[in-house]
Amino acid sequence: MINGKNIILAVTGSIAAYKATYIIRDLIKLGASVKVIMTDASCGFITPLTLSTLSKNPVLIDFVKKGNTGEWNNHVELGLWADAFLVAPATANTLAKMVTGHADSFMLATYLSAKCPTFIAPAMDLDMYKHGSTKDNLQKLLDRNSHIIYPESGELASGLEGEGRLAEPENIVSFLSKYFRESQPLTGKKILITAGPTHEPIDPVRFIGNHSSGKMGFALAKKAINLGADVTLVAGPVALQTPKGVTRIDIQTAKDLLEVCKLEAEKHDVIIAAAAVADYTPKEVSSTKVKKKADDWNIELVKTHDVLKWMGDHKKEAQLLVGFALETNNEVENANKKLVKKNLDFIVLNSLQNKGAGFKHDTNQITILTKENKKIDFELKAKDEVALDILMQIVELERVK
Ligand code: CTP
After folding, report:
1. According to the model, what pLDDT value does residue 358 have?
2. Mutate to test the pocket of ligand 1, among 212, 253, 306 (most ligand atoms within 8 A of CB)
C-alpha cells in the first residue's frame, strides 16, 4: 500500500530522533519516496547527512538554502507533493505549535501548507505526556483529523518507566500501510482477473497458442492492488512477474481456466476477463511426439468452453463482469454482441486496426462499451494507464450501485 507514495517525515528534537533511520529504511523498502524535514533541535540528536543518505533526498531544515545563494526551499510545493505528512518523533513543543498554527520553522510552515493526511507519533517523558496541556493538544489535533500513533510504554531516556516512548518504527509504518489500504477506492473488493494466452496441447512438445503477452491483465492486477483490492490473477503461460500482493493461479489450457474460474468466480465481487482464450483445442492429444510422415497433417479441433459466458450465466447479484474484445472489423458491433451474449457490465474493445493496440505492445488503445449503451473512447496510452481507466470505470459502477 505504501508503494509509490510520497511521504514527508518531519523529525523533531527528541532522543527518539535516531529511530527515524528505521522508519525511513522501512518506508523506502516498501517503495515510498521519502523527503525528510528536520527541526534545528533534532539536528543535535542525529545528523542530516544520515537521514539524507537513507532517504536518498536532501534533508530540508531552513526556509533559505545554505550558502547565501538567494534560493529557498518551497514549503508549499513540498506540502502538495506529499501523500502523507508524518511527524516522528513529535515533541510536546511541536504538538503545541501545530495546534496554535505557529510557522516559525520550515517544518511547521510545510505542515500548514500540506493538504494530505497528517500522522503524529509523539515521544516525550511520561509526565510531559500525561500533562493536561499535551492531552488537550493531542485532542485538538485529533479533532482536526490528524492521526495519532500513540506512544508505547517502557523505559524512557530519563530513566523513568512509563508511557511516552516513540511507537516502534515497524508499528508506525504498519499504521501508515493500514491507513492507505483502508482509504483506497477498491478497499474490501475482491477482484478476479484472467490474463495471458492459453496453450492447447497437440503432443508433449507442441501446442496451439496465440500472441497474448499477458501485459494488460498483469497491469490490471498491479493497479487493482494499488487501489486497495484483493486480487486473484489466473494466468496463462507468460513470462511476467507476479505483482506484489497478488494471489496467482497458473493455468495452461482453456479447460484449466474454466475449472479455476468455476471455483473462484463466486468468491469475487468483480471479474475482469483479459485472457486470450483459445476457441478451439485439439480433439486428441498424443502422449508421444508426433513424428513427421506425410506432407499434410490435419489436426481435428473441437470448440472450447466460453469461460466468460459461463461466468455471465452464473453471475451473482451485484457482481460486476468485464470482458475484452479483440476485433479487426465491425469492431463496435461485434463487441456489443459479446457484451449482451456474455451478460457483461462493460466490454473493453481493442481494435487491431489501431497502431500500438492489442497484443505484445506496452501500449493499448481502448473503447469501453457499457450495457447502458455508453461508448467511451480513450487515447493510446501505456498499459498501466489503460488499466487505471478500466478500474476507475469499475470504481464508478461500484459507487452508484
Ligand atoms: N473468452 C473466454 N473463453 C473463451 C473465449 C473468450 O472467457 N473460450 C473471453 C475473453 O477472455 C474475452 C472475451 O471472452 O474477455 C472475448 O474474447 P474474444 O476472443 O474477443 O471473443 P470470442 O467470444 O472468443 O469470439 P471470437 O473469437 O469469435 O471473436
Report:
1. 65
2. 306
